[in-house]
Design brief:
single chain, mainly beta, 7-stranded mixed sheet, 4-stranded antiparallel sheet, 11 strands
Length: 122
Amino acid sequence: QLVESGGGSVQAGGSLRLSCAASSWIYTDRYMAWFRQAPGKEREGVAAINGARGTTLYADSVKGRFTISRGRATVDLQMNSLEPEDTAMYYCAATRPYSGAGSLSPLNYNYWGQGTQVTVSS
């Protein structure tokens, strides 16, 4: 079970930190990722991390602004320099174990949280 927290409203240029509780999966050989979906748009991958190796992937739109990391019992997404275009519902997701190379395609993820809303105002 994946449970997101940390969403909210912030002005452009501000920061938010999202957390995904998934204690038994954090350090296993699978990818855990953050996705987002804005109204009328497709779900897009933002960042992913392999639990065992710590390797990370980022969408070009967030490189240098967002950082994904593993905590003791959570996978976190630190979001800095937020822009109105970052406004969306953010979802935590996980692959099955040993799913091969990392990906930011939602088709590769099997488990999903309920989402947390992030709103960035200009």
